[in-house]
Structures are given as structure tokens and as C-alpha cells.
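From: lab user (bench 3)
To: helpdesk
Subject: output format question, protein + zinc ion

Hello, I'm new to running complex predictions and I'm not sure whether the block I got back is the full result or only part of it. Here's what I submitted:
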Amino acid sequence: MTEVMTSIKKRLIACPTCKQLTEYSLDNAYRPFCSKRCKLIDLGLWASEQYAIPVEMNVDDLEDNLPTQQ
Ligand SMILES: [Zn+2]
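Helpdesk reply: Thanks, we reran it on our side. This is the complete output you should expect:
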């Protein structure tokens, strides 16, 4: 009898991005995704967020390649 209520309270769904079972609850701000990362991937934003890392590294490369001016 209590099984029905439990299944309503804790409903497991498969994350659209990684197919991992995640709890569909109001506590999960990224539902129906399992995490913020999966939501960003689905929205196509994850690529742009990753892109920020090489940009920072390029700055260091530029500084290393700068000719020493004296
Ligand atoms: Zn996921």
C-alpha cells in the first residue's frame, strides 16, 4: 500500500543527456536532468563553457611567447 505513495514521492527518471537514473523532485533544480552539467550539455551551453578554459591558457602562451623587451 505504501509502495504507491513512495513511487509518487520519489519518481526516478532517466536523465535525457547521460541516461542516468535521477530523482525527479522539486529539490532537483535541474530536472529532468541529473545535474547542471547535463542541462548545459542539452542546451548546447556546455561547449561554450569548456571553451573558456583554452582561452585562458592561450593568454599564458602569449605571455611566454612575448619577446623580452629591454
Ligand atoms: Zn545526466
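A quick orientation on your result: Residues 15, 17-18, 20, 33-35, 38 surround zinc ion (CB under 6 Å). Let us know if anything else is unclear.
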